[in-house]
Amino acid sequence: MNKLILDMYGFIVECQSDSVNIIQTLVRPFRFFVQESGEPHTIVTIHTFAPPYNDFPPIKAAFSSPRNIVFKDGTTKIIDYFHQGVVIQKENEFQIYGTDRNFLQESFLLLILSCFGQYCDSHRMMRIHALALSCGEMAIILPMLPGSGKSTLAVAMLNSDGIGLISDDSPLVNKYGQVLPFPMRIGTNDARLLKAIPGKFKYQVDRMEYGIKSFVDVEYWQDRIQRHPFRRTLLFISYQMLNGAPRIHSASYWMALKALIRDAVVGVGLFQGVEFLFSHNTWEVLKQIKTGFMRLNLSLKLLRKSRVYCFALSRNPEENAAMLQSFIRTELKS
Q: In whole angstroms, what is the distance from residue 94 CA to residue 216 CA?
């Protein structure tokens, strides 16, 4: 059995499979976190063959989501992705069965993100659905709605001198209100955006619900990847303009808090993994309320370390990047 270890801020996952190639493929978005050793909290085994449906017990469904049906039998959870494949969970051990590489890639990614999200909540860390860059010792966080050009802006900014990458879409905030790097890969639905990037850094995944998406390994920007916490932050509350030039103007902390409630406290756009969380009991509901207050507290800590602005995005990504670069450098001099 071939193995790889991931260490994400103390959350250690052992990934194993009889296929070296499939492990390398599945771990590709998490290569920043690959380590040589570690005592795992979670073990994930990938099987590149059809699920053993005939061996499953005759149990009824506990609940369903648009992507799967969940069955529970004591401490065992069986998640059937409508016959594309199956994930079996027994406490902190998972087995993924499937013959389609796209399914294996997506189910592995979502499983790891879900488990890591639970780890963050239990260790007073918060994920934000946002692009996070750096300039000098300042973190730059841009929560952006889907379709507003986050990937385009990221690629354009990373072509500029002095700009670093903290995370493509989910930076972390620790209990001190500091921003932590979480680089995975940059994804876009527009493959033309990546035309100039060498093929060895690019790949595509045909996702279960959303179709084909193109990705770039963060190793392409290896010298830009950040590895340390950031104590100061520029937080941009962005919105898309139908027409006109981009502009940046002042924003209230209340506006920023509303955006963080959406993108961090609730976590719209972040994969939460309801199939791994939900169990229909009062205690789980109470834990979610407690988690919400913890995230709200971290949002307030982040805001106390942040300068807050509104960023009106135009339809021209080059103009947006130029405006942001100019503003950041001016702001850092003040």
A: 27
Global confidence as pTM? 0.92
Which CATH number is 127-184+220-333 given? 3.40.50
pLDDT, residue 93, reads 96
In percent, the amount of the chain with pLDDT more than 70 equals: 94
Q: What is the pLDDT of residue 273?
A: 65
Domain boundaries, the chain: 2-122, 127-184+220-333
| Cα-Cα end-to-end distance for the chain | 56
Please state the rounded mean pLDDT for residues 7-20.
Answer: 95
